[in-house]
Amino acid sequence: MKLFFSEFKEDYQKYHFPYQVWLLKEEADDVGKIYASGFLPIRSLPDVYYLSRSLRVDLSQFSLSSENRRILKKTENLSAELLPLAQFFYNTEVQKLCRDYAQERLGKGALPVPAIRSVFSGRVYTHVLVFKGEQKPVGYAVCFINDSLLQYAHAFYALAHLNENLGARMILEAVGWAKENKRKYAYLGTCYEEKALYKTEFKGGEFFNGFSWSKNLDELKALIKGFNGEYLLKNKDYLNSFHKGDLLQLLNTYGVRVNY
User: Fold this and answer.
1) What is the CATH architecture assignment of 53-215?
2) Please, are residues 174 and 83 in contact by the beta-carbon 8 Å criterion?
3) Single pTM value for the model
């Protein structure tokens, strides 16, 4: 694998020189190790990944909670079918449902039609969960699946079902499938805003904090609130609250080791 550091806007007065870390997967690389190092795939660039505050579920620790069971009960009229993307028929009806959802939930221009088509192309992701109500498709969840993991990557559903817990059922269905089919982890995307905390409502949930996987929900909430524009590992409040104030011990213990 190769790492690249894509420069972002600097703040010279604060001595901040940020970079987005990208990874290029090479032929012999283990995809599971790439995900385990905190990287997720870029939807428009096959074999290129970005480092992020990724969320996952350790499926050895997962079991249904009372809230999970409530969601299943409330959406028991829905069925789900997992299809390889190579067998999925992408048509104008699929495109309209996905476009309407993206415009309503993400904002106009956030995910234009060409980007939606690329999600379903099979170049980056491998499968789609198709959800039906009364035999009519009402939602699609595009995933990457291999022998060790599932990534729940992009979800779209009919706006008429916006307040019917369909979104929660879709992600729960993916996690449950991964557990039943003996995958090790289910990756659920990123968490940078409070509205994404619904992804933490699974037993076995953890997030990547830049150097390790953490199960501490208070730490995640603190990261979402931010640290006054400082680099995280220079922030004394963060170090004292979650790492006993010992930066040297943290650096010696954690991190992604790169072999050249």
Assistant:
1) 3-Layer(aba) Sandwich (3.40)
2) no
3) 0.92
